[in-house]
Structure formats: C-alpha cells, structure tokens
UniProtKB/TrEMBL annotation:
Annotated protein name in UniProt: Flavodoxin
Domain of life per record: Bacteria
InterPro entries registered for this protein in UniProt: Flavodoxin/NO_synth, Flavodoxin_dom, Flavoprotein-like_sf, Protoporphyrinogen_IX_DH
Domain Flavodoxin-like stretches: 12-174
PROSITE patterns with a match to the protein in the record: FLAVODOXIN_LIKE
Source organism (scientific name): Streptomyces zingiberis
Any one Pfam family match given in the protein's UniProt record, by short name: Flavodoxin_5
Length: 187
C-alpha cells in the first residue's frame, strides 16, 4: 500500500490489479494527481491477500488489465466481494487493454468494445464513469499462441500508454469530488 501526504480533502482509494505493471503505473499516476489536488489517497494492489475495505473511503477508483476480453479475476472479485460498500460510494472504474496496439480493423473494433464483464460490474457498483486506457504489452507477456494471434491482428508490442489521457481523466475525477485545499508543492 502507498499513501499520500495528507491534505484536507476526502479519503480516496485507488485499487488495482496488474499482471505486468502498466496498470499499476496508471493507478499510481491517478493517485498522484488526486493527492496533488489535496485528497488523502491510498493505493492498493488487490491480489486477494490484503483486502482494503472500501467502506473507509469517500471515493474508490478501481483498475484492471484486460485479459481475454475481461477484467482479471482478482480485480473483478474485489468488486463483487465489496459490492455492498461500493454501491454506497462514488466509484470510477478503468480498464487497461491493448486496443491502441492493434492494426486495422481490429483497432476500431477493440476501441468500440468494452471488456465483456464491464456491463455486469457496472450493474453491481453503478460507477460514475468507466474508462479504457491503452497499456503496454511485451512479446514475453504472451504465450506462443498469443503471439501468433497478436501478430495476425497487426499488433505492435510496446508501451502505448497516453499519460495526457490519464491525467485528463484524473482531473475530471477531481472536479467530481468535494473541493480540497491543494497541497503545496515541496520547496
Ligand atoms: C495473456 C494476455 C491477454 C490479454 N488479452 C487482452 C484482451 O483480450 N484485450 C485487450 O485489450 N488487451 C489484452 N491484453 C493486453 C493487456 O491488457 C495490456 O498489455 C495491459 O497493459 C496489461 O496491463 P498490466 O501491465 O498491468 O498487466 C492481454 C495481455 C495478456 C498478457
């Protein structure tokens, strides 16, 4: 768990799963932006062992990589396990996939289609908003069969994250939260 310097803002949880680190870094970036705006942010990886209780927070942001067109099980399980607390909180969900890495026409199709379990997750927690971000994918992350399929879809390995989009989303979340005294930048 990572915590931010306390501002006078609301307590916010950024919970994420990450197989290879790119969702973690997006979660940390969002947390950093919210902390900069004065909120008291805690960042947790949900790996099934340390279950941060969402009931302790005003707002909860949950992110997952997309594997085989779905959220990874530990992230989806976290949402379902904490359904009762989450439905009474402000919740934002984000997914990290590889749509930007694909060639045409797969790219257009991937951008249009959200992860298959997202409609179900939306029913469970009624999020303020859900968002998809491009992530990073390396050849070593895929099985030999996965590499063949990825290549057939015109896929390009690499880091496709768009930090401006991540920052813009974090700023939109900040605008949706009660105003906080902004933290002074370190001298
Ligand atoms: C086994 C595997 C399956 C994947 N399946 C999908 C998928 O169905 N759709 C998608 O958009 N991205 C898929 N991806 C891409 C990942 O979601 C993307 O690389 C993401 O950045 C991974 O996040 P992470 O680094 O936090 O694990 C897959 C990646 C792996 C390794």
């Amino acid at each position: 768990m990572a915590g931010s310097e306390a501002g006078d803002g609301v307590p916010v949880l950024v919970a994420y799963a990450s197989a290879h680190g790119s969702t973690r870094e997006i979660a940390e970036r969002i947390a950093e932006r919210l902390a900069r705006a004065g909120h008291r942010v805690e960042t947790y990886e949900v790996d099934g062992t340390v279950p941060p209780d969402p009931g302790r927070y005003h707002a909860v942001i949950i992110g997952s990589p997309v594997h085989d067109m779905r959220w990874v099980p530990e992230a989806a399980a976290y949402v379902h396990r904490h359904q009762a607390a989450l439905e009474r909180r402000r919740v934002w969900l984000f997914s990290v996939g590889m749509s930007e890495a694909l060639g045409r026409p797969f790219h257009a199709r991937a951008v249009r289609h959200e992860p298959r379990d997202l409609p179900g997750l939306r029913e469970v927690v009624h999020p303020e908003e859900t968002r998809q971000f491009p992530g990073a994918l390396r050849r070593r992350h895929l099985t030999p069969l996965g590499r063949v399929i990825f290549r057939a879809m015109g896929g390009r390995y690499g880091d496709h994250r768009d930090w401006d989009r991540v920052d813009a989303w974090a700023e939109a979340i900040v605008r949706g939260l009660p105003r906080a005294e902004r933290r002074r930048p370190p001298v």
